[in-house]
Design brief:
Largest interface: A-B, 57 and 57 residues
Oligomer: homodimer
Number of strands of chain A: 28
Largest sheet of chain A: 6 strands, antiparallel
Distance between the termini of chain A: 29 Å
Structural class of chain A: alpha+beta
Chain lengths: 476, 476
């Protein structure tokens, strides 16, 4: 991958990336099947890709593990595939059971020999200075090897009431680059948060941790004996039919609350690296420079007299007049309007969408696939129209449909089309017809993207009417 | 048309409908090529259709004239066609020159014999009680025949600062159903407007007028001699090449300010008919019953804790959290977010869109045509995809394109398709290909709507690459 491996030769370092977030707080850009960790908020890289890329100079690919949940497994696997990182081990929780269970399972799955050191990274944080971050990680790894549990603390820049704070005690040595943790405070009221910011020895809990496999397993055995026992029973049942039920029965507790708050060998390394947890839409104010009126406006926007707003548009036009401290987010099938100070309630809104079983809570109109993507551009009684993009050299599965026929019109690039026994090459402005129940395959033999318009007709037009006969990817 | 003509036999009544509004204040639902008077805000009828339908019991179709401007001519003609009201005379101003010019021209175009009485109606007002309205019109027509200029006054229900007020003087007779107008006040400050509401003898100027042809032409000759002279010169030049330039040179003045404020024979008939000029998005609060939180929410909306808002969605989801006194309007290609008290600034926003030459100020993605409609559902380099709907029994022009080929896939209904010399009938799930430069025609021979997906490919894909060989409608 072109990353120089400057791995500390004396340390057997592993990385566990927690990528099971459900993405409710960035709705409508995130959906339950397209969570925050795969958003490309800051450019061409998803937050998961950035998280992995950031640590690769210190931890080789084959020492990384990504933990996700069943709902997100497909999209996470796709992210890894797309970047050529298929060899990263993917561990799928049937359902999220908080960080203690995820880390406890991951630690058990790592080889025990050679004193493995585990670094735990949330998959959806932003870090401006990756080099300083790696230096801090290296220091932390040494401490972990020495038997400490290590957490990284962020010097608070505002009295954030949504975070956990750690009070630091005495430095562990004369270099004063790490401190004993003396107290945890979760989501303090504003006055207390303000006092913490003034005090100077309180840090935000970043959620990035380091410890040896042995240290964390011993700590979990001591402080979370029930979880520990259940994980011991479960670790050899990954492929068994009981796994899902067993996992669902695990106690749901955070690593912070269940373990770190209770141990006496926790140290805090202050991290001054431009960290942001990108927790809500409000974070865009930290990630993008606001204009003279304090607005962060991205995409196709026109604004008259608004200030201090976050306006996130894509292709469609978002026009705003005289707004203050407001968030407007537009996506092809859903728009959100919400005051900045109510941004925490986005998750309540998504819960309401779930309650109404609205597809906008889970899916985008554009769905990414290992071979490319498709976008639903029109639908009505008895028909559905998609724009389908196939990456160069990729092909869809050989498949047929029991209930629909399809018309394909190539509009960009060239297609190798299999219909029944016939294979033909067609290019822009040519079309083919695929009757019901006829095996067919779409392939891009070219060097440029292939784009087709697919018109489906039939009584039933959902994705589950795909019978796959042969697939290049991991789909059955 | 099934309307009972209860025309006063003693009155030779004509109706002039002013339908030249540019529709900036209802953007993004209105566009310059889809103005407020054709919006269907309240149901299946456009405001223009409602305006005409309302007066038909009193004024027959052949006595109606619609005045519009060149930009709106197509869409207004389409509205009349769609309702079967083609015989209404359509007068097109090259450019709007305010109401005095429009009414002066229209009056000259009416036959002078039999003492014609002219009623002037804006095309974009809402009236809840059409029967009471017709009764008031009938009374007004009698007064107009007696030589009065008549305006209809609305008893103010709020201290609106955006309207003109008329102070009423003494009643013209013992019935006290009409009063001499004693003073005009245009857009008063709030304190004055509040005083007017309290006083009880001030009325909003509704913009609905009645006078005999002779009375208004004499009044214009006296009070607007320049406009009068230019209109005299212009009235026989409607078909001449000079018409446009001559019209552009007309003084732009309102009938109220130029004539009505200056005459001594103006009377006001109070109108208690649930009138609303539907002037801004805020009017939806008057037209639709708000819910318990004071919200008017139309279309696909989900709301958490917002109040006193107007939320206008269509197919796409609009989700709102904790808004107060806010307007959110969503259309397929543009969204507006604006506080209720800044609703007057929507026109400034549209001016900005015009300045940037953004298509969203003039056109919708769905364009209505005499034969049906089309919607642009996708577009990219070298291709454009439309959903085309053809009404039963209608057909598009016989046409060809110099730069594009087309693929048609029928998805609903049946199509009679002419391609070159070939005529064939195709139904849902069948497709045809139309090569570049090949004459073709699409027709719906059935009783149900025909819907096709049209995929265009070629280097140039705009509407002006249509060479019409034969058309059922008024297009060249």
């Amino acid at each position: 991958m072109g990353y120089a491996n400057v791995n500390h030769p004396s340390l057997n370092l592993f990385g566990i990336i927690l990528a099971g977030g459900s993405g409710t707080r960035f709705w409508p850009l995130s959906r339950s099947h397209y969570p925050k960790q795969v958003l490309r908020l800051l450019g061409s890289e998803s937050m998961l890709q950035a998280t992995i890329g950031r640590v690769l100079p210190l931890i080789p690919l084959e020492h990384l593990m990504v933990v996700t949940s069943a709902t997100q497994e497909d999209v996470i696997r796709l992210e890894l595939y797309r970047t050529g990182w298929d060899e990263i081990r993917l561990v799928t929780e049937p359902i999220g059971r908080n960080t203690a269970a995820a880390v406890g399972l991951a630690a058990r799955l790592l080889p025990a020999e050679n004193e493995p050191i585990l670094a735990v990274f949330p998959a959806d944080h932003h870090i401006q200075d990756p080099e300083a971050f790696l230096q801090a990680l290296g220091r932390g790894a040494e401490l972990a090897k020495a038997g400490f549990l290590v957490t990284f603390g962020i010097l608070p820049v505002r009295p954030e009431t949504g975070y956990g704070y750690i009070q630091c005690g005495s430095p562990i040595d004369s270099h004063r680059k790490a401190y004993y943790a003396s107290r945890f405070i979760e989501k303090p009221p504003l006055a207390q948060a303000e006092a913490f910011v003034r005090a100077g020895n309180y840090y935000w809990n970043s959620g990035i941790f380091l410890f040896s496999r042995k240290t964390i397993l011993e700590a979990m055995a001591r402080h979370l004996p029930e979880l520990d026992g259940r994980l011991n029973a479960l670790q050899n049942e990954l492929a068994s039919p009981q796994f899902e039920a067993m996992y669902r029965n695990l106690p749901s507790v955070s690593l912070d609350h269940g373990v770190l708050e209770k141990v006496d060998n926790l140290v805090v390394i202050p991290l001054d690296v431009g960290w942001d947890d990108v927790g809500t839409w409000g974070a865009l104010k930290n990630l993008f420079p606001p204009d003279d009126q304090g607005n962060v406006a991205l995409g196709n926007t026109v604004n008259v007299d608004s200030k201090n707003c976050i306006i996130y548009a894509q292709d469609r036009l978002v026009a705003t007049i005289g707004l203050d401290q407001m968030i407007v987010v537009d996506t092809p099938d859903a728009t959100l309007v919400c005051p900045l100070n109510k941004v925490q309630e986005v998750k309540d809104l998504v819960a309401e969408l779930d309650r109404r079983e609205m597809v906008e809570s889970s899916q985008h109109l554009t769905v990414e696939r290992p071979w490319g993507s498709y976008t639903i551009i029109d639908a009505g009684h008895g028909y559905k129209v998609k724009e389908v993009v196939v990456h160069p050299g990729k092909r869809l599965s050989l498949q047929y449909h029991n209930q629909r026929a399809e018309h394909w019109v190539v509009v960009q690039g060239e297609a190798l089309v299999t219909i029944g026994q016939e294979v033909s090459k067609i290019t822009a402005n040519e079309s083919v017809y695929i009757p019901v129940k006829t095996p067919h395959r779409l392939e891009n033999p070219g060097l440029a993207p292939l784009k087709i318009i697919e018109v489906q007709t039939g009584p039933y037009l959902e994705e589950d009417d795909i019978v796959r006969l042969n697939d290049d990817f991991w789909r059955g």
